[in-house]
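Batch job 17 of 40 flagged for manual review because the log was empty.
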Amino acid sequence: MNDQLTSPPAPVAATLGLQDILRNLFTSLQVTLTDQYGPGEFVHLQSGEEGEVIDLTWRETRLRTPTGDIAVVPSSVIGNTVVTNYSRGDELYVLAVEFKVVADADLDRVVCVAVEAARAAAGASAEVEASLPRHATWSRSLAPALRA
């Protein structure tokens, strides 16, 4: 009779213990079979983590963050968040750079130098645009925007 009272909780405990393992396993299978991302690719998770994928196992994905740290993300987390793979699709990305200059600066010269620098950057597109917020109130500084 004592065995009957203690036996039912054992399978329940085992089932609860296997939930995370099975969730990680099936999520990693889904990521692998659907080829969502792989080693060497740069991904961003909606949960905030981002970096280069350095390892993908059935339990976790390891990312090298832009600061060089290693983020270990359980597969179960990846299964419940949006993953953006920046290494696939369009090879060109828009990067907006904002910087401040003094109010009496020669703005045409500032724009010219900024565009030249952007075009000279490794891998930059020749289609660099620069814009100035002409409607901005002149004060001690002005923030031109550069899109490369």
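Reviewer: the log was empty due to a logging misconfiguration, but the result itself is present. The helical segments are 2-6, 9-33, 75-78, 107-120. Unflagging and moving on to job 18.
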